[in-house]
Specification:
With 236 residues, this protein is α/β, with parallel strands linked by helices. It has a 6-stranded mixed β-sheet with strand order 5-4-1-2-3-6.
Length: 236
Amino acid sequence: MLKDLLFIDIETVPAVPSFIELDPVWQSLFCDKISKTVPEDMAPPEAYRKRAGILAEFGKIICISTAFLYQDEGEWRLKIKSIAGDHEVEILRIFTELCDKLYRINPNFQFAGHNIREFDIPYIGRRMLINYLSLPPYLNIQDKKPWELKMVDTMNWWKFGDHKNYVSLHLLAHVLGIPTSKTDMDGSMVQDVYYLEKDLQRIINYCQQDVIVTANIVLRFQNLPILNPENIQIVT
């Protein structure tokens, strides 16, 4: 099962840096979208800053980190490749090319990640449609029943059937004794690092650490040792 997994994590930001840069129609649509999910006293510019990046209609993908586990000399190893940049269409195109190659080799491959059922995979699918890209078979899942989806989601694993439970990747890593992915930044900082600091490499490093942590969580669920740092390879 472990060799069938493609670990993924995405980083997203608002499509434009600020609310005032949206045209009036998009401003109105954004306010309507968030009207029932943010406090009434939160002004649209603040709501846009806090929420736009996680809404596929108003955000964009700037990084997708992928990884897979393999065995060598009796040890599990992880190979990571990140696709990042300012041009979302190119990121999505390269990502699907990578997945297409894997799908041809192993049609039973599964995406793996933390909260990918509710965030990463739906976000990717929506952004592909928005950008006029065809959905490949492994992402053409909009009509699938929950039990038909082939995904490993570590947040769902931790629920053990308790649908009220939510756990962050950061907390789950600490609980399981896994070195945390949250070092010099967290998810709330991504848009400032991207738009203000213009430090895409820092975001890539952060995204890759999340993939490593998720892979280690999956190994812990299988009662296997976590990865030795020297067994993690980043492909540039």
